[in-house]
TrEMBL record:
Protein name: Uncharacterized protein LOC101889618
Highest taxon listed in the record's lineage: Eukaryota
Domain CHK kinase-like: start-end pairs: 131-328
Pfam family, one: EcKL
Length: 418
């Protein structure tokens, strides 16, 4: 057994771990591990809530008796005071249930070889919460640039895939209503928001920092006051943003739909033209309005010209695929375009949450994001300085916020009572 590039890796990533992962994932009672080669682990700046390890396994399974190679992603969450909220939100359990009880069903319902996510090989809670996935890069999938944001082509591909994901989840929920119990709330779970002073303090830091900056912009003085007022009622506003609404259209939201949480596959004859996309990281998935995912995506991941001039086109593109997918699955009550548009409008406050809390972090330069981790952000002075950098690091952030705040103010979302 040979381990390569294994320096500074946790001791539990050993032969027994990978043997168990492959035997479970490949459904083979006896896998012989020949070699494990590790890539560079990633964490701060790209994966804020977990440690990601890349490993390439050379192995032989009893079924074929051939040496084979497989690239794997190992995602671990160490529960510390800084990451306790992940335990409070039950993100590991939710993601585990999604991969083992939901993903395959959604893909089968959609048919046509649809792939929504990577194959999950193995999960374990010891010595820490860990999930092992197929590494999608070995099949040609790769991340887009979080700093640049997505152009229209990339937006169309992901929104079409999101539409299929949402549509198939509606059909699955109709067949299995009890499934909703496992995915009641995402990152804005009301119980968590009301009980976590640390979370609300960090959200307040973002909004106060933004409000103070906005106060220096000509023509934004009143908006700055409204942002301070929003922050004065931050807990109630966050609860309102995430709370289910009576009679809303209900789909399974990805729940964390920003650039690093989906990967693209590109055309063989044009490495810049995307033809498919798959999602990663389902730990915040929840049943709720499709307006949550759509607004979160639009406010965190889209290039400004696309957001300004192609917003309605993108929504109509989503709806076209959503309608067609539901029709193909013989769903009886297909929502109209107007109903979907109303869902999106009703969840603009959720989009605002994405705008001030995620866009600044998403668009950070690699240099400015290298030292970010949940543990580092637990230091209030570090967090205060870093949040200021977040808003100024990338011109795209300020330009998008300037446009979005005027638009949201015109819609009146800052004037609503929490």
């Amino acid at each position: 057994m040979i381990f390569e590039n294994s320096n500074n890796l946790p001791s539990y990533l050993n032969e027994d771990f990978f043997k168990a992962a492959l035997e479970v994932g490949l459904r083979d009672s006896c896998v012989d591990i020949k070699k494990i080669e590790f890539g560079e682990p990633s964490g701060g700046g790209e994966n804020y809530c977990s440690k990601i390890y890349r490993a390439k396994a050379l192995y032989r399974c009893s079924k074929r008796q051939l040496d084979e190679e497989l690239a794997l992603i190992v995602k671990s969450i160490d529960i510390t005071p800084a990451t306790q909220f992940l335990e409070d939100l039950a993100v590991y359990l939710r993601e585990k249930i999604f991969y083992f009880e939901v993903l395959d069903k959604l893909e089968m319902l959609m048919g046509q070889g649809t792939k929504f996510g990577a194959k999950c090989f193995y999960t374990t809670g010891e010595p820490m919460q860990t999930i092992v996935f197929d590494d999608l890069t070995q099949y040609g999938y790769r991340l887009a640039s979080r700093q640049k944001g997505l152009d229209e082509e990339h937006c169309v591909v992901i929104l079409r895939k999101l539409a299929k994901f949402h549509a198939s989840s509606m059909v699955l929920l109709e067949k299995n209503p009890s499934l909703k119990e496992h995915f009641k709330a995402g990152m804005l779970d009301e119980t968590y928001v009301r009980s976590s002073e640390r979370f609300t303090d960090y959200m307040s830091l973002h909004v106060r920092t933004l409000a103070d900056m906005v106060a220096t912009w000509k023509g934004y003085e009143e908006i700055s006051k409204k942002l301070h007022n929003y922050c004065d009622n931050i807990t109630e506003n966050l609860v309102k943003s995430g709370r289910p609404r009576p009679g809303e259209i209900t789909v399974l939201n990805h729940g964390d739909l920003w650039v690093n949480n989906f990967m693209y596959k590109y055309k063989a004859d044009n490495c810049n033209t995307p033809e498919d996309a798959v999602f990663v990281d389902f730990q915040n998935s929840f049943f709720g309005s499709p307006g949550c995912d759509i607004n979160f995506f639009l406010n965190s991941s889209v290039q400004l010209p696309v957001l300004k001039y192609r917003r309605e086109f993108l929504i109509e593109t989503y709806y076209e695929t959503f309608h067609e997918a539901l029709r193909e699955m013989n769903y009886e009550r297909i929502p109209s375009l107007k109903e979907i548009q109303d869902e999106i409008t009703s969840r603009e406050l959720y989009g605002f949450f994405s705008l001030y809390s995620f866009l600044p972090m998403v668009a950070l330069s690699k240099e400015d994001s290298a030292d970010i981790s949940l543990e580092a952000l637990a230091d209030k002075e570090f967090a205060r300085k870093k949040v200021k950098v977040m808003f100024s690091s990338n011109p795209r952030t300020m330009e998008t916020i300037k446009y979005a705040l005027k638009r949201l103010d015109k819609l009146g979302i800052f004037d609503e009572e929490p």
